[in-house]
Design a protein that fits this description.
It comes from Marinicauda pacifica. This protein is an alpha/beta fold. 41% of the residues lie in helices and 14% in strands. The protein has one domain: Rossmann fold, CATH 3.40.50.300.
Length: 294
Amino acid sequence: MSSPHFDPARDRDSSGRSSDRPAHIIVMGNEKGGAGKSTVAIHLAVALMRMNRRVGVIDLDVRQSTLGRYLDNRRRWSERRGLDLPIPEQVVVQASTARSLDEAEAEEVEAWKAALRDLKARCDFIVVDAPGADTHFSRLAHSSADTIITPVNDSFVDFDLLADVDPDTFEVGRPSVYSALVWECRKQKAVKEKKSIDWVVMRNRISMLDARNKRRVGKGLKKLSERVGFRLAPGFGERVIYRELFPLGLTLLDLTQDGSAKQFTLSHVAARQELRDLLIVLKLPGLEGERIPF
């Protein structure tokens, strides 16, 4: 079975963008690795391209570069099999090697601004995979975001980055380091641009089994969302397919395309629905009321 018709040239202006609306910057952020940021980033980027939007990506995790390697695998798979897979435009940003902290940060600010200018001229959406640590690039990305998506594993280990938890009662305490970072970035954006940052937390790698810990995490996130001001989104379940797709550079949306190396199963149908649900909750500009073609 073939994939939905991919026509990135539909309704474009001379720059290749689909509207006069400024490019919307989506930052995948979490100060802990292993939460699935890169997996969500590539699936979101490809989903938006399947909806005929131009998408640019920036992988700021310059050490691991999981998203960058995912795209390299995707290009290789596409070329070897002669497939026309949608591949987002990538801009590489390098960390400064200057010894002076002030000089290094100044160089990184310029590199970041240049990358955004480059992609904003041609893209409807820019998906940024921020590093799983508090770095200068991470702070630059968060302060530039229109939407921040924070995937968290379904455990109190990840929850601790958002807020303190009482070990006896499991009551939610004060906001923690990452919440403070996002709060500060939201204040800066409101002052400088008179705009708000939409912060969305998604429970990722959710076990299919019901458990007391799972319910406690869900209850805690709901309480914290009301206090800190983020929205909760359905995440991706714990599925082996995501690990299997990485070396191929494929996403769930490619599995029904000719040349796919994986058989499409009912589990994959459910996983696609999770991606659709995420898109609906995100309420991204320009997609209101549009049919999701997958």
